[in-house]
Design brief:
Layout: H1 2-19, H2 21-25, E1 30-31, H3 34-38, H4 41-49, E2 58-61, E3 64-69, E4 74-79, H5 84-91, E5 98-99, E6 115-116, H6 117-140, E7 145-151, H7 153-164, E8 175-180, H8 188-199, H9 201-204, E9 207-212, E10 233-236, E11 242-245, H10 256-259
Parallel strand pairs: 4-7, 7-8, 8-9, 9-10
Antiparallel strand pairs: 1-11, 2-3, 3-4, 5-6, 10-11
The structure holds 2-acetamido-2-deoxy-beta-D-glucopyranose (NAG) (3 copies).
Length: about 280
């Protein structure tokens, strides 16, 4: 009898939850508040700093660094991007192909997961150095979280680090990934893996990929080549409003896939920003 009572309560609260505006609102496009936008600012500076060889960052070399932010109590692993014309040229090259992730670097990843071969090779070269720098920084700051960031090509490498690092760091470490002007990195199996393992962290805020206005890079490589974005898009409108777009490659006009149907309707000048006033690069 008491068991039935508990079940009845559970069911009635479930149905009221399903009927509540909150449940339906979760799937709609929402505009970020100024407070929410400002919360991204430190990561925007960290992504931009990857272009600068800054003295404040630890062990910057070859376009990447690992650093520590005491106020956020987080280890930062950041990658530099390339210039806009070279990334657009590379990503519109029809010679693009996908490969599996290296099984030593990415133990246990399903073989259906495919990623851009150039991104995979580039991430594989820096991966051991990044891992050891992150491990050393974490041992100097026990309990700190780990944040991956980058812009452009650097965003793609940061997303691969976001898949790679948790496979080698102690369970219980918390991770966050924030990227800017990120191209598509892999296939649908990759996007689904990222959604399940990364985007879903911290109540669905584990990954945010921010793209600016009519930037061509986030719509490349094309979906017709089998590439898909994971969830977690935030799109900056021409009005400078920041909108969170639910799902993968949302085709709404408020999101990049709907706003920029092809590269001919894009504007390369939007790739470097500004992202809330911050231009990428040094
Ligand atoms: C972009 O990078 C490529 C390759 O590194 C270089 O050849 C080109 O001059 C650069 N373009 C600009 C505008 O900096
Ligand atoms: C940075 O590099 C120095 C010298 O190579 C090394 O001793 C130090 O442990 C490195 N720090 C991190 C956090 O990787
Ligand atoms: C795109 O956003 C709309 C809300 O405007 C939502 O209903 C739809 O499910 C989203 N599309 C995808 C593919 O998730």
């Amino acid at each position: 009898m008491s068991r039935f009572f508990v079940l009845a309560i559970a069911l009635s609260s479930l149905s009221s939850l399903l009927a509540s505006p909150l449940a339906t609102k979760r799937q709609s496009i929402t505009t970020l508040s100024t407070t929410q936008i400002s919360a991204f600012k430190p990561f925007t500076f960290f992504a931009s700093a990857a272009y600068c060889d800054p003295s404040t960052t630890i062990n910057w070399s070859c376009g990447r660094y690992v650093g520590f932010d005491p106020s956020l109590n987080t280890v930062i692993a950041a990658h530099q991007g390339t210039n806009t014309s070279s990334i657009v040229a590379e990503l519109t090259d029809l010679d693009i192909f996908m490969k599996n992730l290296d099984s030593t670097l990415f133990p246990g990843i399903d073989p259906s997961v495919g990623v851009h071969s150039g991104f995979a090779d580039s991430q594989a070269r820096s991966a051991p150095d990044i891992l050891s720098a992150v491990q050393q920084t974490l041992s100097a700051h026990p309990g700190a979280s780990v944040t991956m960031t980058g812009h452009s090509l650097g965003a793609a490498l940061a997303l691969l680090d976001a898949v790679y690092l948790p496979l080698h760091l102690p369970t219980g470490t918390s991770f966050k990934t924030v990227t800017y002007g990120m191209p598509r990195v892999g296939n649908l199996a990759f996007a689904n893996y990222v959604d399940a393992q990364i985007t879903s962290l911290s109540g669905g805020t584990g990954l945010t990929h921010i793209n600016n206005k009519e930037d061509p890079v986030p719509i490349l490589p094309g979906m017709f080549l089998g590439f898909h974005h994971p969830s977690g898009e935030v799109h900056i409108q021409d009005s400078d409003a920041w909108d969170a777009c639910p799902g993968q490659d949302n085709s709404s006009d408020l999101c990049i896939v709907g706003d920029v149907p092809n590269v001919f309707e894009s504007d390369e000048a939007d790739h470097d920003g500004p992202y809330d006033g911050v231009e990428m690069g040094c």
